[in-house]
Amino acid sequence: MSEKSPLFGRRSAQIKLEAFDYAETAEFVPNYSPEEKALCYGITGGVAKYLSLIDDSRDVHENIVNQFFNKSGYLYEETRNLLVQEFTDISIVNNIIEQIAMGATTLNLIAGKIQENSSTVLYSLEKLIAVDIVEKRMCMGEEKNRKKTQYVLKDHMFSFWYLFVPAGTSAIELSKGDIYYEKAVKPRLHDFMGKVFEEMCRSFVLKKGLDGQLNCFVTQTGFWWGMENVPDENGKMTALPADVDIVGISPTERRMIVGECKFKYSKIDKEVYETLIRRARALPYSYPVVQYVFFSLGGYSRWMEENADRENVSLYTLEDLFFA
Fold it and tell me: What is the torsion angle, in degrees rounded to the nearest 10, for the CA atoms of residue 220, residue 279, residue 142 and residue 122?
């Protein structure tokens, strides 16, 4: 690619080697349960090198401790090593990634948090996007609205690392990383996996839609966030923040699928169902919703099992993502 390269000008093709998706990741750890396979995808982001470090004959939590919360663990210093390879000055990109991991997703908010001007932050964000660490995400149906642009961590391993490893550095350096993990990380794994699970479910919907296994030919998926009007106990309408985890659209058929994801042991019940039905009306599309899809780690209540209209409502479990 470089003019100084001995083979410059002789390139006939180039391949960008992408990370594996959640289903391909599962093949690296066949002995694990679906939940453990999902966790492996969440902590490695589907990178083959990181997956090769996971021994599925041992407990998944033991693997996480050994790789992230151990001074000799391969992934303990991995983010720093990668940033040093890609950037000359890692201080600003490190601060940006840290703020995104903590929930700052807009340009102005990130710039304010790290006390840098927006142009400097935007330049670094573009470089982070180029190396697939950060992703610029648009709100479905409102792609031209610049105020509805989010910067999120595309690399799940970076997200996990920045959420949990820096706060545990002192414990890890004292060889107490296992205790830190049990007390401070393990109880929060389901919260961390929430966003990962949403991405897995959107991928599932896109694949099924393209294969003709859903109620419309889905060619685009994403998520929506905004405001919805909700009546209070007195019947007065109040504008409240709202989001829809899965929005799958078929521009050719002018139809739409919407969905909700819960990576929790609690069962999805009537309230979640009715909330999704209501929020679907706030979406900025004129397309009719032809299918409501739900994804749950903990399963579904009896009401959901008995009352969901199976013609336009589909109830999926985590197992379905790997075996359906």
Answer: -90
Q: Which residues does residue 291 pair with via DSSP β-bridges, in sequence order?
A: 257
SS3 category, 228: strand
The pLDDT of residue 230 is: 84
Q: Which two tokens stand for residue 28?
A: 């690296």
167 vs 185: CA distance, rounded Å: 10
Tokens of 142: 């409102």
- Segment 182-188 mean pLDDT: 98
Q: What DSSP designation does 268 have?
A: B
Is 2 within 8 Å of 8 (Cβ atoms)?
yes
Mean pLDDT within 274-287: 94
Q: Are strands 289-296 and 255-262 parallel, antiparallel or unpaired?
A: parallel
Q: What percent of the chain has pLDDT over 70?
A: 100
Reduce the DSSP state of residue 256 to 3 states and report it: strand
Domains parsed from the chain with CATH numbers: 22-68 (no CATH), 78-164 (1.10.10.10), 193-323 (3.40.1350.10)
| pLDDT at residue 223, rounded to an integer | 95
Q: Tell me how far apart the alpha carbons of residues 273 and 61 are, in angstroms, rounded to a whole number.
A: 33
Distances (CA, A) of 228 to 222, 274, 293: 18, 14, 20
